[in-house]
Design goal:
The complex is a heterodimer of chains A (332) and B (332). Chain A is mostly helical and 332 residues long. Chain A is 77% helix and 3% strand. Chain A has one domain (14-321): ABC transporter involved in vitamin B12 uptake, BtuC (Orthogonal Bundle), CATH 1.10.3470. Helix content of chain B is 71%, strand content 3%. A two-stranded antiparallel sheet of chain B has the order 1-2. The chains are: A mainly alpha (332), B mainly alpha (332).
C-alpha cells in the first residue's frame, strides 16, 4: 500500500495527491447532499463549464511560473474573440464557412500572441513590473475592444460552431477535449522542454539564469506571447459556447484564475508550478460551484466559498508541517 | 534639491509629464484651466486618492492589497446597518463605524499574512473573492437608496469662485494625505515600514516587530477603504454592492505610476497623488478635446503603458554613462 502511494507521488507529485483527496471529499459531500449531483447530465455540464476557466488559468500559469503575472488574460481573450467574430461577420455571418472560421481562428491567435509579445517585451526589455505592465495592457485592450464595438456584443455565427461549443466527441464535451489537449501541451512545454526549464529557472532567479547563458529577455517575451495565444484559444471557445462576443465577458474570472493557480500549489514568486495540480484545483473549484448551484444557492456564494477554500488550504499548508513536527516530537 | 530629485526620480519624471499635459490641455481647450473644471476634477478623484494613500502604505511595507475596494463596499453596507441600529447617527458616528469596520477587515488580511504566513497577494485575492461573494449573496445584489440625510447631503467646504466648490470628500482626501504623510515620513513606525518593506529579514534582525508592521499597514489600508467608502456614498448618494469592484486595479496602477515600488521600500504620498492625477487629467482632457468616450480606456491604458516604459527606461544609458540596471521587483 505504502509503495503504491510512493509510486503515485513519484509520478504526479505529493501536491496532486492532497488535492485529489480534497476533490474526493467535495464529490462525496455533494453526492450525499444533492441527489442530482452524481448524474451524467451534471458531470457533462461541469465539463462544459470548466473549459473557459481552465484555458484562462493555463494562460495565467506560465507567466506566474516565470515570476510574473498576466492580468490581461480576460481582455486578451475578449479581443481575440472579437477578431474571430469580425472575420466571421465579414464572410457572411451565419453563412460563413469553415475556411472563414479557420482564417478567423488563426487571426485571433495571432492577435493574442502579438499583444502578449508586446507586453512581454515591455516587461523583459524595459524592466516594467509584470503586474503593472499587464494591468496597463488589460486597460488598453479592454478600451480598444470598447472602442471597436461601442460596448455592444457581436453575434450571428454559423451553425457548425454550435457543434464545437455544445457538441461531444465519444461522450466527452468538445470544450473539455480542447482543455485536455491544451493542458497536456502546457504540461509537456513546462515540464519536459528546454523552454519550460528556462521559465522555472527565471522564476527562481532571473539574474543567475542570465549568467548561465539563457536568453532571459527572449524567453520572457515568449512566455507572454504563448500566454496570449492561450487566451486567444479561450476566447475562441467562449465565442462558440456563448454564441456571442462582448468586451467584459468573463471579467469576473480574472482573479479566479489566479486563485486556481495558487490553489494548485504554484509559487506566487515564481519558479515552481505544474499543470497537473492546477488542473485538479480547477476540478475542485468547478465541483464546488456546480454542487452549490444544485443545492439552490447563487453563483456568488460559490465565489465566496472559493475564496474561503483558498484561505483554508493556505492555513492547512501552514499548519501541516508544524503539526507533523509536533507529532514526531511526542513520539520521541 | 538634487539629492531629492535623485532619490525620487520617478516622482520627478511624473511631475514633468503632468506639467506638459496640463500646459498642453490649457492651450488646447479653454475650459480646462477653469475653477469649475479643476474643482470637479478634485471632487471626482478624491476617493481614488484616499484609497491610493492607503494602498501606498501596504506597498511600502512590501505587500499588496487587492481586496480594499470590495472591503469599501462591505463597509458601506455594514455602516448603513450599524447606523440604522443607532437611529441614524451623524458624520462623526458614521466615520467611526466606517473606519472601525475598515480596520477590522484590514486586520483579517493582516492576520492571514502575519499569522499564517500566507503571501499577501494570495491572501488578499482570497479575501477579495470571499468578501465579494458573501456581499453579493447576503444583499442579493440589492442597492440601498434610503440613506440618512446627512450622509447624502452635499457638504461644500471651500468656495473657489465662479460657483466652483470643493466638497467634503476633498477635505477627507487632504486629511488622509496629511495623516499618511505624517505616518510614513515623520514617525518611527514609518521608518520601520520602509525598512521592513525594503528588507524584511534585515528589519527583523534589527528589531522591527514584523507582525505589528503588517497589522499597521493592512489596518491603515482598511481605514482608508472605510473612509473612502463612506465618502463615495456622499458623492453618488446610493450604495450599490458591485459599484466599486475593479477600482482596486485602477488605483494600484495609479499608485505604482506614482513611484511606489511593487516589492516594497519605496513610495511617497505626493507621487501617489500625481499618479491618480495623471490618469484623471488624461481622461478629463480627452473629454475636453471631444474624443469619443469609447476611446477613453484605450488612451488611458496606452498612457500608462508609455509612462511605465518611460519610467523604467534609463535615459543615462543613452549617454553611455552606465549600463541600464534592471530592477526586479518581488512581492511579499
Amino acid at each position: 500500500m505504502a509503495g503504491w502511494i510512493d509510486r503515485f507521488e513519484a509520478m504526479f507529485g505529493r501536491d496532486v495527491a492532497g488535492l485529489l483527496g480534497f476533490l474526493a471529499l467535495v464529490l462525496v459531500a455533494f453526492t450525499v447532499t444533492a441527489p442530482q449531483f452524481p448524474t451524467v447530465a451534471n458531470f457533462s455540464s461541469m465539463a462544459f463549464q470548466v473549459s473557459d476557466l481552465g484555458l484562462l488559468t493555463l494562460a495565467m500559469l506560465m507567466p506566474i511560473v516565470s515570476g510574473g503575472f498576466n492580468l490581461a488574460v480576460i481582455a486578451t481573450a475578449n479581443l481575440s474573440g472579437l477578431t474571430l467574430a469580425w472575420i466571421l461577420n465579414r464572410n457572411g455571418g451565419p453563412e460563413a464557412g469553415v475556411v472563414a472560421f479557420t482564417l478567423g481562428a488563426v487571426a485571433a491567435v495571432a492577435v493574442g500572441g502579438a499583444s502578449g509579445a508586446v507586453m512581454g517585451a515591455t516587461i523583459a526589455f524595459l524592466g516594467a513590473h509584470p503586474i503593472l505592465a499587464s494591468l496597463a495592457m488589460m486597460i488598453f485592450l479592454r478600451g480598444l475592444g470598447e472602442y471597436l464595438t461601442r460596448g455592444g456584443d457581436i453575434s450571428g455565427f454559423p451553425d457548425f460552431l454550435r457543434e464545437v461549443g455544445h457538441g461531444a466527441l465519444f461522450g466527452v464535451p468538445v470544450p473539455m477535449l480542447i482543455l485536455l489537449v491544451a493542458a497536456l501541451c502546457w504540461h509537456i512545454l513546462l515540464s519536459h522542454t528546454r523552454h519550460g526549464f528556462a521559465v522555472a529557472m527565471i522564476g527562481s532567479n532571473a539574474r543567475a539564469t542570465e549568467y548561465s547563458g539563457v536568453p532571459v529577455k527572449r524567453t520572457i517575451t515568449l512566455v507572454y506571447a504563448l500566454s496570449g495565444m492561450m487566451c486567444a484559444l479561450a476566447g475562441i471557445v467562449m465565442l462558440t459556447r456563448f454564441n456571442s462576443v462582448r468586451v467584459g465577458h468573463g471579467e469576473a474570472l480574472l482573479l479566479v484564475t489566479v486563485l486556481a493557480c495558487f490553489l494548485g500549489g504554484v509559487d506566487p514568486f515564481g519558479g515552481f508550478g505544474r499543470v497537473p495540480p492546477v488542473f485538479v484545483a480547477l476540478l475542485i473549484l468547478q465541483t464546488l460551484s456546480s454542487g452549490l448551484n444544485l443545492l439552490g444557492t447563487s453563483q456568488h456564494l460559490s465565489t465566496a466559498v472559493w475564496g474561503l477554500f483558498l484561505i483554508a488550504v493556505m492555513i492547512l499548508r501552514w499548519a501541516g508541517p508544524r503539526f507533523a513536527k509536533l507529532l514526531n516530537r511526542t513520539k520521541e | 534639491m538634487r539629492d531629492y530629485l535623485r532619490s525620487h526620480e520617478g516622482e520627478a519624471r511624473l511631475f514633468v509629464v503632468l506639467v506638459v499635459l496640463v500646459v498642453f490641455l490649457s492651450v488646447a481647450s479653454p475650459s480646462f484651466l477653469t475653477a469649475s473644471n479643476l474643482a470637479s476634477l478634485m471632487n471626482n478623484n478624491a476617493i481614488n486618492v484616499i484609497w491610493a494613500v492607503g494602498l501606498l502604505v501596504v506597498l511600502i511595507s512590501g505587500g499588496i492589497d487587492i481586496s480594499f475596494a470590495v472591503a469599501a463596499s462591505v463597509v458601506q453596507y455594514l455602516t448603513f446597518y450599524a447606523l440604522m441600529a443607532v437611529g441614524g447617527g451623524n458624520w462623526l458616528v458614521g466615520l467611526l463605524f466606517a473606519g472601525g469596520i475598515g480596520v477590522a477587515v484590514g486586520f483579517i488580511n493582516a492576520a492571514l499574512i502575519a499569522g499564517f504566513g500566507v503571501i499577501s497577494i494570495v491572501a488578499t485575492i482570497a479575501t477579495f473573492n470571499a468578501l465579494f461573494g458573501l456581499l453579493m449573496f447576503m444583499t442579493a445584489g440589492r442597492s440601498l437608496y434610503d440613506l440618512p440625510d446627512w450622509w447624502t447631503t452635499r457638504v461644500e467646504v471651500v468656495h473657489l469662485g465662479d460657483g466652483a466648490t470643493l466638497t467634503l470628500p476633498v477635505a477627507a482626501m487632504a486629511t488622509a494625505m496629511a495623516a499618511t504623510w505624517f505616518l510614513i515620513s515623520r514617525t518611527n513606525i514609518g521608518r520601520q515600514l520602509y525598512a521592513f518593506g525594503d528588507n524584511p529579514e534585515g528589519a527583523r534582525r534589527a528589531g522591527v516587530a514584523t507582525s505589528l508592521m503588517q497589522f499597521i499597514a493592512y489596518g491603515w489600508v482598511g481605514l482608508m477603504a472605510g473612509v473612502g467608502g463612506i465618502m463615495q456614498v456622499n458623492i453618488v448618494q446610493e450604495v450599490v454592492p458591485n459599484a466599486l469592484i475593479g477600482r482596486e486595479l485602477e488605483v494600484l496602477a495609479a499608485v505604482v505610476l506614482g513611484g511606489a515600488r511593487l516589492g516594497g521600500g519605496r513610495g511617497t504620498v505626493l507621487g501617489c497623488f500625481m499618479g491618480v492625477l495623471l490618469v484623471a487629467i488624461t481622461q478629463n482632457g480627452l473629454n475636453m478635446l471631444g474624443v469619443s468616450p469609447y476611446a477613453f480606456k484605450m488612451v488611458i491604458g496606452l498612457t500608462i503603458l508609455v509612462a511605465i516604459s518611460m519610467s523604467n527606461f534609463e535615459f543615462s544609458a543613452l549617454a553611455g554613462r552606465h549600463p541600464g540596471r534592471r530592477r526586479l521587483g518581488r512581492l511579499d
